[in-house]
Amino acid sequence: MKNFWKSWVIVWIVAFIFAFGTTSSVSAASTIAQTVQAYQGVQIYYNAQQLTDEKQPLIINDTTYVPLRMLMENIGCSVYWDSINYRVLVYDSTSKNEEEIAALNTKIASLQAIIDDLEDELEDSSDDLDDIEDEIIDTFEDTGDIYFDDEDIDIEVKLSGDEDDISYTIIFDFDDSDEYDDLKDLDEDDIEDFLDDVEDEILDEAEDTDFEDADITGKLKDADKSSYFVEYEDGDYDYNWDDDDDVDWNDLEDELEDDYEEAGEDYFNDDDIAISIEVDGDEDDVEFEITLDFYESNDNDDIGDLRASDIEELMEDIANDIYHEIDDTDCEKADITGTMYDEDDHRLSVEYDYDDDDFDYSW
Prior knowledge:
The chain is an alpha+beta fold. The protein has three domains: 2-75, no CATH class; 122-242; 249-361. The protein is built from eight helices and 17 strands. It has helices at residues 2-29, 68-74, 96-139, 143-148, 188-206, 249-259, 263-268, 308-326; strands spanning 38-39, 45-46, 49-50, 58-60, 63-65, 77-82, 87-92, 154-161, 165-173, 215-222, 229-233, 236-239, 274-281, 285-293, 335-342, 349-353, 358-361. Strand 6 and strand 7 (87-92) form a beta hairpin. Helix 3 crosses helix 5 (188-206). The longest helix is centred in the N-terminal third of the chain and has 44 residues, at 96-139. The protein is elongated. The termini are far apart.
């Protein structure tokens, strides 16, 4: 009798699946309305025990359709709906671990689908921002000539942000300019015209993208003088040099640390040499200290292993950067001196006088 019941269940399941698949195929293939006759009230009993619940079977066009979950759970099976792959999963009650694994796999698949969607959105958003940045670079490549009558001003543009906020950084390089020494020499009206146009162009390019409602903020910087910059937000312009010409030594120190982070590779062909820089000063004297750490290096043991010409080139470049940073500040006439130390042995050091261009080696 038990085998007969299982056979009967299998027959009905096959009938249900066939009927469902046939109905789906017809619905997908045709939009022609069909007339059906459906009746409720069918009761299913097994060994005199009623199996039907509130989800009753239906007789549709002389075929009885029975809820799959009702049958399976009453004979000790578990039923799961796999919404990702659009499948019904049925497991024997004895396969509890398999049921749990199946449920977890379904949950994992659902979460993975969410992750994939988010990654696609993030990638699309990143592509949009990159496209906007490319358009800004192309549009303003002749900024020096158009806005400031100096084609020798080089420009660099960087964009970052999300759907709510876009921030741009524009860097002006005056190294090749004969007309201007730095950002402070530019006419403020010309600067504001330029920044207004940058905002307008970003908004135009952001239209019909995820960034179209983003707020725009920006910063215009001097490539050689980090203390010279203009900040922009909501049509307001903040010129930092209006308030103070003194040097912010912490900012200058951070700028040098960033610029010379790869000094080991750039000057000594050894990227395992770590470098740190400290700088401080006043109106009379500016001093900088360079510390080289050879702990990770396999090619050099200490400063004494380095070529003097490479050491001097590094110290001269740092001193030149400091000179440009303090120009037009209260410290512009200060004497610049520097010292390079070995991290493990400060007796190995090099002292440098920028004004006299003189180097003194302790060893």
